[in-house]
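Dear Dr. H.,

I hope your travels went smoothly. While you were away I took the liberty of generating a structure for the chain from your last submission, since the lab meeting agenda had it listed for discussion. I wanted you to have the full record in hand beforehand rather than looking at slides cold. The sequence, exactly as received, is reproduced here:
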Amino acid sequence: MNETSGIPQEHLLGKYTVLERIGTGGMAEVYKGRHEKLGRDVAIKVMHTSLAGDAQFTARFEREARLSASLRHRGIVQVFDFDKQGDRLFLIMEYVNGGTLKQRLETLRAEGRYMPLKEISRIFQQVANALDYAHDQGMLHRDLKPANILLDQSGEAYITDFGIARLLESEEITRTGSILGTPDYMSPEQCEGKTLTFTSDIYSLGVILFEMLTNRVPFDADSPLATLQKQVHAPVPSLTDTRNDLPTSLDVLLRKALAKEPETRFDTAEELADEFSRLAVSVGDSNPPAARKSTPAPVKPSNNMSYGWIVAAVLIILALGAGGFWLWKLRQTSAASAARCVSVETCERNARALATADRPLLAIESYLKAVSLVPADQQTVNAQLPCDLGDAYARINKKPEARLAFRECIAWTHDEAGLAGLRQYAQKRIKELK
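The corresponding predicted structure, in token form, is as follows:
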């Protein structure tokens, strides 16, 4: 290895030999290396020296490395070791020798071919399963994209770089409103610098699925800023803009996966992957024409149904009148509640009072407002909030929403030892609500 690489020729950390550079990025360079005593090939991520000199970054790097190393899943690249040597920070990871999903898609694009649906379904299921596992451990990815999905020589998929996107976050970045991530794959809330939930990763997964189906991302533009604007405001393009051999049911699936509002997306990655696999099996890989909606023949009502329709109409009118009164009453109560909810503390206090008064819907509204007001650097202090929101959802049997809130509660603990009890409670509730 030559001197211009910036990597010493001697063994790194006394045990790893650098063989060749296999990738580069804005934060680090990646090399193939070898653990001589174990005879094992590894990937060595070397952070740029400008970052290693930042004490805050170094501390964050060590913390994220420990969290990433705690993930044990066959679909997640294993972190073996991390350390610092001179002015260089190293992350030693499992070596996956088949390239990236990005490279696979680029090859297909150059050949003018689409990825077979069976291959898409297999890779997508593996990635979704790994992503849900990480979410259950309270870990968000924040920068899920084809470049961070590795493939081995058998075509098996592995997610890499969990927690790496969060390394550059700091109080200064948060204060200035800078946005971290890759614009083509960022959720609307990430584009706007808002607090992220696990459904932000699911949105990114939906973008990846769109690209696997069409060889292009749904929201592309001439500049990163224009791409961010499209992510936030533009409707999801139809698959038929690119292909005419896919059913409209896949458009419905992608509109849900790429919904602008986080709460209307799929609750889990596995739910998205299972639905796609079901639709893909019905299509096959024979390039059939796009499915069309069939319109059932109208049923002509008989004369003896007229009286029944009159009675039904009267009942509907009466119900609407009564419902209108209660809706007006609810709005008055909701307005009064909202007036008392202007900060995290007041919203939380208001939510608990409403929950005690057996008004779960209004309590949920206040909890949601409280959660939205919590700054990113105050999540750990307020980690109880999303757990309380989960309990409120569970009380009215909104299981998907409750599970999502409890996962957010786990994420907000940020692996703090003092919040282990809260994490265990949230994990227990997630299992109970499945």
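Two observations you may find useful: The longest strand covers residues 16-24. Strands lie at 16-24, 28-35, 40-47, 79-85, 88-94, 149-151, 157-159.

With kind regards,
E. W.
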